[in-house]
Target: Replication-relaxation
Amino acid sequence: MLEALYVCRLATAEHLRLLVTPTTASSRYVRAELGKLARAGLVNAVQLRGRTRTKVWFLTRAGAAAAEASPAITARPHRMSAALAAGPLQFHALAVADVLMTLHAYRHASVLDCQVEVSHGQGNAQDPTGSSSRSMVITDAVIRPQPSAVEGGVPPVLFVELDRATTSSHRLADKLHAYDRYRQHRHAASRASSPSSWQTRYPSSEYTFPPVLVVITGPPERAGRRMDLVWNQLKQARRGLLSGLDSGEVAVAGVSHAVLLSHLARPGGLTAPIWTPLNPHAPATPVTLPNLHAAARPPKRT
DNA sequence: GTATGTGGTTACTGGATTAC
DNA sequence: GTAATCCAGTAACCACATAC
Model:
C-alpha cells in the first residue's frame, strides 16, 4: 500500500481497495489499514475537494522513506504535503491514480512498473529521479504494460497525458510539440548517429517512440467536444508547429477519461478500439493500441 | 429522510506457526 | 500428526457527519 501511494502520490480508499483487495465489495479493510498507517505517522489524509466525506491519502515524509526502502521503488525527490494534496493538484493526481489503479486491478500493468510526473529531455536524460527544471516535457504517467499485453501488440511503453480542459488547446498542442522535440533530442555530448535520448531511456521501445495517449477528463460529452477541438487544431497546424507528427513516429491519440476507465475495467481492455489518432493526416477513426503501434512502426530494415 | 463515506467493534474463516 | 494459537482478511453491524 505504501509503495502504491508512493507511485500515485494521492489516492482514495477506493483506489487502494482496487489495488489491495480488488475482489472485495467494501473498502473497510483498506480504511482500517490506512488508519493504522496514519497512527504510525506513515500516511496522512485531506478531504477530497467538493466532497467532505471522502479522504484523499498520501505518504508523509516517514512513509515516503519507508516506501523507498523497497527495491521495487525508484526514489524521487518529490514529496507530497497536506497543502499540495488539498490544492488544485488533487483532481489531476486522482485522475492519474484512476488510470493506474484500473490498469493494475485488471492486470493490464502493475502500478509498481508505472511512474507519474516523469521529466523528459533534461540535461541528463537517464536521471532516474527525473528531476530537472530544464526538462522538455513532464509526462503525467509512463505506463509499462504487462508482457502478455506487449506480446499482443501493445507498445511496451506508453506516455499518458491527462487533459482536464482547464487550459487552452494551444497549450496542449505546445506540449505535443515538446514531445516531438524530445523524440529528436540527443545528449549534448552525443554524435548525430548516436541513439536519441528516449531510445537510451526506453530501450524496450526499440525504434518506435512511445505513443503519447491524451486522456481527456470530464464528462464524455464535454470530453468529446474537447477532442474535436484539439483534433481540428492539430489538422490546421499540419505545416507548422506539429510537423513532426507527419513522420509517423509520434502516434498521438485521444480518448475521454470515462471511456478509458470503462474499457480498461475488463479483461483485454487495453486493446479496445477507443483511440482516435490525433495525427493531422490520419482519419479520425478509433483504433486499437496494437494498430496504433503497427502504424507508427518504421518499415523493417533489410 | 435518504444515501454515502468514515471509523469502531465484533465475529467468522482459513492459513501459518507452535507446542505437545 | 494433531490440537491450540495467532494473525490476516472479510463481512456485518452500528454511530456519526454530511450532501442532496
